[in-house]
Amino acid sequence: MYEPPKSLYFDDDNTQDEVKIQSKKSDDLSNFILSVQLSSLNKIIEIPVLNNSILYNNIKSDYFLNDPIDKDKTIELRIDYANQITKPNISGEKKDLIEKIKIRFNPKNKKIQVIGYDLSYSKENKNKYIKSFNFITGKYYSSCYFGNEKKDTSGWSSELQNIYTENWNRDF
Question: I need a surface site. Which of 39, 46, 47, 80 has the fewest CB within 10 A?
Answer without folding.
Answer: 46
